[in-house]
């Protein structure tokens, strides 16, 4: 879509407001709205000025002027606002040089796509994320000097069998790890997911499947189609927005926290990816599971840089409540066809055009622009340096003999470990100016604040373990 077509869309739909959206470092979408009387072609040429100093991890107050440059190709009518509002994703531009701000996630993703082309290795990278999420009836928490708690309320949860509900307790609900995937009334979210899917498709995001996920207390997944790196990251932001807001209209609350419930499955975001050149899938070949050497080297790059990647693909302290050895999470840095215990899986496809690799350790807390860019840069480093990942894993990696288990590397065990790994292993991200050192430094500083806050807060489990000692 062109800028002129957006202006026509505004007129044809009698749009009252235009909403400019962008992602901060953590991936949280921000927005600013202008009435249609202040929206014209100049917004596409000169951008919309805003204060970048209030965005965590960004500019200081002394150099805070930034520009939002809307991308006309992302224009949509917002499905939730009462007044007709058109929204667009924006790049954050430095007014001094007119280039993408080095800490703007969407600009980083654009530079990653440009780097792929300039490297000559490929011209298009496709990504297909699978973000899982929970829907609860209500959530309450408190952190204070007098103590802390969290309380999840979910009529669908197994712990609600003894609760009294208005209209009665029907008794139909999934057991712990029993949500995959019985028909309603055990699955109580069919209509809500269907509504989410219809809204996503109205926004131009093709939906392929939706279903209840393994965890009993409202874990769900909506599978949507792959696309190019920047567009697929835009779609992921829109998916989160739709899921949050549809749940909200039902009086429920949705979360993409990787591990909100103790004792049940966490939420991952498996990321399917492939690299193409001149219309040809470079991952298709006659090697293991139909992979090319290019694809194997790409896997080698992801495995080599996995611990540094964790800081971006698993960016919360909560992420490492999911990535725990001995459970179902993909912590083992190995690759395999169809074997879901490996952190890199090669899905079975009948057509070589669909050949791809699936990184299974990322989670939906990740900023999609940074996550996809970092995975691509790691994979391309593997291709450039011919990093072979070794033999594929044929065994169940969850139940190996100790001597074999010790030989297979794992992902990080904490956010602090991941940030330390990123600090030491960052050069592959900075090639072609995709990520800057200043951006990585700011990212580590921002995330270390989260580590420090968590480290300094007493946890109820500690009272359980230590109060009487």
Automatic annotation (TrEMBL):
The family this protein is said to belong to: Belongs to the glutamine synthetase family.
SMART domains for the chain: Gln-synt_C (SM01230)
GO cellular component: cytoplasm; membrane
Binding note for cofactor: Binds 2 Mg(2+) ions per subunit.
InterPro entries with a match to the protein in the record: Gln_synt_N, Gln_synt_N_sf, Gln_synth/guanido_kin_cat_dom, Gln_synth_cat_dom, Gln_synth_gly_rich_site, Gln_synth_I, Gln_synth_N_conserv_site
MF term (GO), any: ATP binding
Gene3D superfamilies xref list: Glutamine synthetase, N-terminal domain (3.10.20.70), Glutamine synthetase/guanido kinase, catalytic domain (3.30.590.10)
Binding-site residues for L-glutamate, renumbered to this chain: 265-266, 322, 328, 340, 360
Domain GS catalytic span(s) in chain numbering: 105-469
Reactions listed under catalytic activity: L-glutamate + NH4(+) + ATP = L-glutamine + ADP + phosphate + H(+)
Protein known as: Glutamine synthetase
Binding site for Mg(2+): 130, 132, 213, 221, 270, 358
Keywords: ATP-binding, Ligase, Magnesium, Metal-binding, Nucleotide-binding, Phosphoprotein
Pfam families on file: Gln-synt_C, Gln-synt_N
GS beta-grasp domain span: 13-98
SUPFAM superfamilies for this protein: Glutamine synthetase, N-terminal domain (SSF54368), Glutamine synthetase/guanido kinase (SSF55931)
Biological process terms in GO annotation: glutamine biosynthetic process; nitrogen utilization
Positions annotated to bind ATP: 208, 272-274, 340, 353
Needed cofactors: Mg(2+)
EC number, UniProt record: 6.3.1.2
Residues the record lists as O-AMP-tyrosine modifications: 398
Keyword match ATP-binding: yes
């Amino acid at each position: 879509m062109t800028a002129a077509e957006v202006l026509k869309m505004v007129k044809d739909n009698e749009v009252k407001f235009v909403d400019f959206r962008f992602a901060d470092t953590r991936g949280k979408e921000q927005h600013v709205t202008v009435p249609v009387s202040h929206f014209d072609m100049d917004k596409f040429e000169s951008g919309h000025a805003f204060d970048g100093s209030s965005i965590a991890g960004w500019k200081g107050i002394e150099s805070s002027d930034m520009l939002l440059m809307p991308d006309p190709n992302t224009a949509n009518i917002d499905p939730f606002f009462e007044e007709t509002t058109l929204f667009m994703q924006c790049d954050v531009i430095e007014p001094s040089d007119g280039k993408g701000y080095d800490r703007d996630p969407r600009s980083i993703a654009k530079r990653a796509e440009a780097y792929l082309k300039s490297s000559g290795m490929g011209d298009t990278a496709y990504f297909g994320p699978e973000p899982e999420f929970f829907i609860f009836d209500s959530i309450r928490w408190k952190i204070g000097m007098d103590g802390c708690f969290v309380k999840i309320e979910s009529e669908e949860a197994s712990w609600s069998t003894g609760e009294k509900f208005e209209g009665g307790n029907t008794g139909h609900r999934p057991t712990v790890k029993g949500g995959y995937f019985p028909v309603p009334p055990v699955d109580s979210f069919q209509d809500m997911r269907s509504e989410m899917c219809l809204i996503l498709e109205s926004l131009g995001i093709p939906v392929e499947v939706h279903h209840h996920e393994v965890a009993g207390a409202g874990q769900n997944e909506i599978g949507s189609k792959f696309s190019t790196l920047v567009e697929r990251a835009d779609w992921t932001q829109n998916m989160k927005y739709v899921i949050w807001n549809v749940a909200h209209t039902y009086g429920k609350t949705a979360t993409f926290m990787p591990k909100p419930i103790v004792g049940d499955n966490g939420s991952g975001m498996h990321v399917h990816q492939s690299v193409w050149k001149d219309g040809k899938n470079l991952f298709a070949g006659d090697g293991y599971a139909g992979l090319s050497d290019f694809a194997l080297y790409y896997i080698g790059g992801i495995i080599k840089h996995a611990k540094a990647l964790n800081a971006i693909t698993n960016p919360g302290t909560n992420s490492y409540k999911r990535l725990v050895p001995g459970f179902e999470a993909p912590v083992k840095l190995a690759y395999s066809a169809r074997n879901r215990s490996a952190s890199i899986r090669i899905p079975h496809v009948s057509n070589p055009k669909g050949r791809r690799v699936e990184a299974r350790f990322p989670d939906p807390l990740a900023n999609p622009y940074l996550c996809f860019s970092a995975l691509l840069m790691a994979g391309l480093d593997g291709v450039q340096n011919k990093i072979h990942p070794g033999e594929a894993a044929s065994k169940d990696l969850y139940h190996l003999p100790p001597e074999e288990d010790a030989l297979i590397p794992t992902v990080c065990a904490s956010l602090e470990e991941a940030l330390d790994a990123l600090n030491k292993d960052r050069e592959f991200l900075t090639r072609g100016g995709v990520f800057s050192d200043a951006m990585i430094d700011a990212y580590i500083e921002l995330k270390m604040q989260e580590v420090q806050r968590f480290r300094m807060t007493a946890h109820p489990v500690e009272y359980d373990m230590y109060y009487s000692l």
